Every structure is written in C-alpha cells, then in structure tokens.
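Design a sequence for this backbone.
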C-alpha cells in the first residue's frame, strides 16, 4: 500500500492507495461510523460494509442536491449522531462531494473519510478537499473546502464499473500526464492494452501517479488561485460541451483537451507532433477527440462559466507534453477562434 498526504488548511488527508474496503474497519474510531453510499454501490458492495448504519442516496447528478443533503441530516438526527460521529462516504465523486459537505456542516463539522469506488473518484474527486452540491442548475454552487481524514482507494472495485465510467477517469489521468509529467504520458501510451484490461499493477501505478500530481498541486494551492487552475486543462471547453451536448464529463473533457491543445499549437507553444500524440492516446483509450457542436451555444456556455473573470478567461495551455501554463485570454479571442475553426 502507498500513502500520499494532502495537506490543506482545513486538515490533513491520508490517501491510501491499494488499501481495501475489507480493511475499512481499521480506520474507524472504535469501529463506529455511519456510511453514506449510493444505490448502485450498495447493491454491489453492502455485504462488505462494516456492520454500521448505512444511508443510501440515489445515484446520478440529479441527486447531488440540497434535498439529498436535507435527507441525510434527517437520517443523522434520527440516528442520534452527535459531534463524535464519524461519517464514511463509499462511492464515486457524487457520494464523495455530498458526504464531504454533509459531514463538514452537520453540527458544524464531524470527522469523515472516503472509500473511492470509481476511477474518477480515485484519481480526482476524493483528493483535494473540495465538496458540495449543485444548486438550481448550477454545478457545485454550494460547498466547502474540507479534507477527509482518509481516502481508501481499492482498485478491485473498478472491476464492476461500467466502461463509460472507466473512460471518465482515464480522461483525468491523461490530463494529469499532459499538464505535469511527460514520463507518465509515455507510460500510459505504452500500456494502453493493460489499462483496457484493468491490470491491477498498471492501474495502481496510474492512480498513484495521478494522486501524486493532484496532491502536489493542491498542497501548493488548495483554494485554486494559481497552480490548482492547471487541473482545469480541457475543462473550460469541456464544461461547455457537457452542458450543451449533455455528454459525459470524461468525453467532454477529452474533446476539451484536444481543443485546448490545438489552441496551444496555434499559439506556438506545442508542436503539431505532440498534438497528434495527445489525440492518438485519447482515441486509443476510447475517448472522443472531435465533437459535432453548435459553436454559438458553446461560446454562450463559455461566457457563463463561473471561473471567468470579466472579459478575460483563465485558459490552461500546454507548452509541451507534461508542461502547462495558465494564460489569461480575452473571451472574444476564444470566441473568434472557435467560430473561425
Ligand atoms: N470534489 C472534487 O474535487 C471533484 C473533482 C472531480 C469531480 N467531482 C464530482 O464528481 C462527480 C462525478 O463522480 P463520478 O464520475 O465518480 O460519478 P458517480 O459518483 O455518479 O459514479 C458513477 C456511477 O458509477 C456507479 N458506481 C460507483 N462505484 C461503482 C463501482 N465500483 N462499480 C459499479 N458502479 C459504481 C455510481 O452509482 C454511478 O452510477 C461529479 O458530481 C463531479 O462534480 C468532484
Ligand atoms: Zn474533470
């Protein structure tokens, strides 16, 4: 097992890579806890949970709401959970975001941890202390920064995950390699077959490297004022695709990374050969590299992006595979490029 530490202002988080759900009990105070999970994870794994109270929420983004939060608070009160309670979220990014928010606000905050069960949660969502819910159609509009005490990453849980969900995690993995580590990019390129077979050694290595990269970025900039913005590579356009086309986050981010790389080439920062390598890797991982989209609708969604600062936008560009920088670009310039493509 490998342990990586995330040090945030709100606390320290131990990311336990290669630990198992079966060992969860070891991390609970006196073996006591309340589990929050979703219906799919409960169906597949509840028989492996420790014998404690389980709160099951619905699956999907439509359940990442204040209403679900209120239901959780009701259940916590009914279970007479007090300030000494320990809450464990077992599931993907949605369970993590909801659990983290519920735990860090219930009675002004109780202790909590996660068992990350999707690839996206393992390499991205449960690392970094961001949590929250959607509000009136705005994604992640309400939440807090608060670090989980531990995150158990059990690679065996990926075996039951649908291929489309695996692809979502792989998009973030390619993102980490693109922004921070050329050797990691080579490793993914060399081992596409083993990744497709979810080979345990390969997946452990990938998850570990991704967590190291994300943890380093978060340790340097928990609140996203500089370095953490690099993690948004492919996400500015990705979010606009996700919203306007209703496609999965991973697919949208993949196409977003291709466009951000194209813009990097246009700005003379990335070579056309590197651009081709990125496209090829994504398509070998069954991620889309091109999408049919309504340019005006995407530009409109871009203009509504909450991360936009007035007429300028922080845009993550690559200065090579494994190297990135955040540039402030005029929204009109991005629009002109998009429309003119
Ligand atoms: N907090 C952060 O920093 C951060 C970062 C990235 C994403 N997110 C959030 O994460 C969410 C997406 O997370 P996700 O992709 O994990 O989605 P998810 O939590 O919806 O999980 C995807 C699907 O897989 C099912 N599932 C989970 N584990 C399974 C398993 N082991 N086997 C079979 N099925 C399983 C779930 O029930 C769900 O249907 C979004 O809401 C996003 O905003 C948060
Ligand atoms: Zn993402």
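Sequence:
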């Amino acid at each position: 097992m490998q342990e990586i530490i995330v040090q945030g202002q709100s606390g320290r988080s131990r990311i336990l890579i290669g630990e198992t759900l079966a060992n969860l009990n070891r991390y609970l105070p006196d073996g006591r806890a309340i589990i929050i999970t979703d219906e799919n994870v409960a169906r597949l794994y509840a028989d492996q949970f420790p014998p404690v109270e389980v709160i099951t929420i619905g699956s999907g983004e439509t359940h990442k709401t204040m209403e679900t939060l209120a239901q959780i608070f009701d259940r916590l009160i009914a279970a007479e959970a007090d300030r000494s309670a320990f809450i464990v979220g077992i599931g993907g990014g949605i369970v993590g975001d909801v659990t983290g928010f519920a735990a860090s606000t219930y009675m002004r905050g109780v202790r909590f941890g996660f068992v990350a069960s999707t690839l996206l949660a393992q390499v991205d969502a449960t690392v970094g202390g961001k949590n929250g819910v959607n509000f009136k159609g705005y994604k992640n509009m309400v939440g807090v920064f608060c670090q989980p005490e531990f995150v158990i990453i059990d690679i065996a849980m990926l075996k039951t995950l649908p291929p489309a969900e695996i692809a979502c995690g792989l998009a973030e993995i390619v993102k980490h390699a693109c922004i921070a580590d050329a050797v990691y990019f080579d490793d993914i390129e060399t081992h596409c077959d083993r990744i497709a077979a979810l080979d345990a050694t390969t997946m452990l290595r990938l998850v570990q490297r991704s967590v190291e990269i994300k943890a380093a970025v978060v340790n340097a900039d928990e609140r996203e004022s500089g370095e953490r913005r690099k993690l948004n590579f492919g996400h500015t356009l990705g979010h606009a695709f996700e919203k306007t086309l209703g496609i999965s986050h991973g697919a949208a981010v993949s196409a977003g990374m291709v466009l951000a790389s194209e813009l990097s080439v246009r700005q003379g920062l990335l070579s056309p050969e590197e651009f081709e390598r990125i496209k090829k890797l994504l398509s070998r991982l069954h991620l889309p590299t091109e999408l049919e989209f309504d340019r005006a609708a995407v530009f409109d969604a871009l203009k509504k992006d909450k991360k936009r600062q007035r007429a300028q936008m922080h845009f993550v560009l690559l200065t090579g595979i494994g190297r990135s920088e955040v540039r402030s670009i005029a929204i009109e310039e991005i629009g002109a490029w998009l429309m003119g493509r």
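The chain has two domains: 2-160, 163-340.
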